[in-house]
Backbone:
């Protein structure tokens, strides 16, 4: 069957038309925009709990919508300790500084601080339709040719589609929360058996009973008022401690060693408690200082007021574990620390609540409880010392 020349010409004409309409326009567009498909890459240093970094993280969400070819190699340096040295390496190569948040596009092309990043990142991206990824050694490479698995530390690759690319590792918030719970619980338990806090409570209850032994209800109310006052004041002190550490962490070079330093402090405090046990030093020196104040307590209202005041005298005895806990919690925002502080201080005051209830219901007398404490203070020191020492060693060795 022969095909006529007319049909052949029609078929060839159709092919030419399709080719002209379909291929050439696409080819022309690509030719006019050779960099359209190339990515704009940057390196970003951030830290969990850094309020300025949180502002930048929110800003990035809008930035990815406006610049879909943007790729950010993200290094978190507070929780991921292996990322921390990279901040110094980039500073050596780019002179970018040691503060965060920090966004690096290349040599002499970096933005430090939330305001500069939010105000000027778009300007750079408008002027640069493509940008290679800056590497720690000062070199750069297009993202398309980058072997992500070869990147040092534990980076995360953020893109417009919000996915984690190969070679990165996902965060494990559940594991981190479990570890934080273990540390906070251990420190609070060690603090809860502090001899001074319990001695002051029993001295206060004894003063209440001596003033009006027939009103047992006052024992319950005074004990709970005193305990509530301690809880509130210690929560306030905790916020101050955490805020202090957050300000210190603005000096990132100090922050890099803070966790290990807290581990060393924990070990030293634990060994001092164990030393007290071995030497048989079990007396609490705070009670004589506040004895006159305690003897004047005659009501639950007075117990609350005195409770707030004597926390100042208690701090030297109980501040050690609390400072360590504050350093650990300083990696998260102030608002998120409130549940952790509530948990810590709830554990801390539980023995006080227990003593109050036992005394009120007559399961034991204040004198018997006070005598038991005097006989076992050194063992309480030993228990607290062992808990804090083991936790400090685990922090120092990176087990928790």
Residues:
């Amino acid at each position: 069957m022969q095909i006529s020349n007319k049909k052949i010409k029609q078929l060839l004409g159709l092919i030419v038309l399709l080719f002209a309409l379909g291929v050439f326009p696409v080819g022309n567009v690509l030719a006019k925009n050779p960099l359209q498909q190339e990515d704009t890459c940057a390196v970003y240093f951030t830290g969990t709990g850094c309020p300025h970094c949180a502002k930048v993280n929110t800003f990035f969400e809008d930035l990815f919508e406006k610049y879909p070819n943007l790729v950010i190699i993200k290094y978190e340096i507070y929780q991921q300790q292996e990322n921390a040295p990279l901040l110094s390496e980039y500073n050596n190569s780019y002179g970018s500084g040691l503060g965060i948040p920090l966004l690096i596009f290349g040599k002499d092309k970096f933005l430090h601080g939330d305001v500069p990043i939010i105000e000027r990142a778009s300007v750079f991206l408008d002027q640069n339709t493509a940008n290679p990824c800056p590497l720690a050694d000062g070199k750069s490479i297009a993202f398309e040719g980058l072997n992500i698995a070869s990147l040092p530390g534990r980076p995360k690759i953020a893109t417009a589609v919000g996915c984690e690319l190969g070679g990165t590792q996902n965060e494990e918030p559940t594991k981190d929360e479990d570890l934080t719970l273990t540390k906070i619980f251990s420190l609070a338990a060690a603090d809860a058996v502090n001899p001074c806090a319990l001695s002051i409570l029993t001295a206060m209850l004894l003063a209440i009973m001596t003033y009006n032994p027939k009103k047992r209800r006052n024992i319950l109310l005074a004990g709970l008022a005193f305990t509530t006052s301690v809880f509130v004041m210690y929560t306030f002190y905790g916020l101050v401690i955490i805020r202090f550490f957050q300000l210190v962490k603005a000096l990132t070079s100090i922050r890099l060693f803070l966790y290990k330093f807290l581990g060393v402090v924990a070990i030293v405090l634990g060994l001092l408690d164990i030393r007290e046990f071995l030497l048989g030093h079990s007396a609490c020196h705070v009670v004589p200082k506040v004895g006159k104040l305690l003897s004047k307590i005659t009501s639950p209202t007075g117990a609350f007021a005195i409770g707030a005041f004597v926390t100042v005298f208690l701090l030297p005895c109980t501040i050690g574990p609390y400072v360590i806990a504050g350093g650990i919690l300083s990696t998260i925002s102030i608002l998120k620390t409130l549940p952790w502080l509530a948990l810590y201080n709830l554990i801390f005051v539980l023995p006080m609540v227990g003593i109050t209830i036992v005394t009120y219901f007559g399961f034991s007398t204040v004198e018997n409880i006070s005598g038991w404490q005097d006989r076992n203070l050194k063992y309480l020191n030993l228990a607290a010392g062992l808990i804090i020492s083991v936790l400090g060693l685990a922090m120092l060795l990176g087990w928790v």
